Amino acid sequence: EVHILHTFPQDFYGARMNLLILGFIRPEYDYVDQESLIRDIWTDIEVARRSLEREAYQRLKGDGYLVKFEGGEHEQEVAR
Fold this sequence. Notes:
Blueprint: H1 34-52, H2 55-58, H3 64-67, H4 73-79
C-alpha cells in the first residue's frame, strides 16, 4: 500500500505515478477499531518521513524515473 506524503498543488486523479519502493514498515493487521488503524497510519507516516531523511534516500529524490514522465501534459504538470 502506498501512502503519498507530498502535498500536490492540484488534483492528480488519473495521472500516472512512478514509485520506488525503498522499504517495508509493517505487515497488514486486522484492526479491532478505526482509532487503532489511524494511530498506526500516523506512526507509519513518521517512520517513513524519518527514513526518507537518510542520505541514501535523499540522493534518490531527484531521480529522473521519479520526476520525468512519458505521457500527457497532466503528468508533467503534477510532477512540478
